[in-house]
């Protein structure tokens, strides 16, 4: 790809990324909104894989790219009302699994200490829910219209922070699902799964809710 073509590709990726809701939820199968935008620009991904954006974002992408709108891919999930995570602090055991899972560093805390969510930075991606061994994290609707919620997530400082986090973590526009058994991502997923199971077993042994 020559320099001019690369510049056009980069501009297209940025335009697509500006349409996406910036939840970084990975429901599309990519590691964040920016990698998904890159995949769409390269013709490697369909425009209908963003549940948080729903029909509105699909229509905007179709208009931007000169394509026909598509129904939301139900395999990626369904469109929900904007929400943020909240930790039920009395139940938190300080395992830090939610901190590791958060793609935007919106959870603060330390091992064996109570954690809390920075609501202003939470995107409601729900990635912190599955790792929690004591189910002490809930999603609560923001009550904010979808367009205003997207404006909040698109604030320049949040967008740049999310992009920097993705760069530091080496996120690439590669599908996060169906990884080979020996891939680094699959090994990481297996490690987290084993940690969750150990935490549940210890909690059950103490007579708590598993």
What portion of residues is helical?
40-55%
Question: Main sheet, how many strands, which sense, barrel?
Answer: 2 strands, antiparallel
Oligomer: single chain
N-to-C order of helices and strands: HHHEHEEEHHH
Task: Provide mean pLDDT, rounded.
Answer: 81
Low-confidence stretches: 172-179
Number of strands: 4
Domain tally: 2
Structural class: mainly alpha
**Strand order, largest beta sheet:** 1-4
Backbone CA Rg: 18 Å
Helical element count? 7
* β-sheet strand percentage: 5-15%
Distance between the termini: 53 Å
Shape: elongated
Describe the protein's architecture and organization.
The chain has helices at 3-19, 33-41, 54-65, 97-101, 146-153, 156-168, 184-205, and strands at 83-87, 107-108, 116-117, 137-141. It is mostly helical. It has two domains: 3-78 and 146-168, no CATH class; 83-141 and 178-205, Alpha-Beta Plaits. The strands form two sheets. The protein has a two-stranded antiparallel ribbon. Strands 2-3 form a two-stranded antiparallel sheet. The longest helix has 22 residues, at 184-205. It is elongated. It starts with a helix and ends in a 5-residue tail after the last helix.
Briefly, what is this?
This protein is mainly alpha-helical and 210 residues long.
Layout: helices, strands, pairs:
Elements: H1 3-19, H2 33-41, H3 54-65, E1 83-87, H4 97-101, E2 107-108, E3 116-117, E4 137-141, H5 146-153, H6 156-168, H7 184-205
Antiparallel strand pairs: 1-4, 2-3
Helix pairs in contact: 1-2
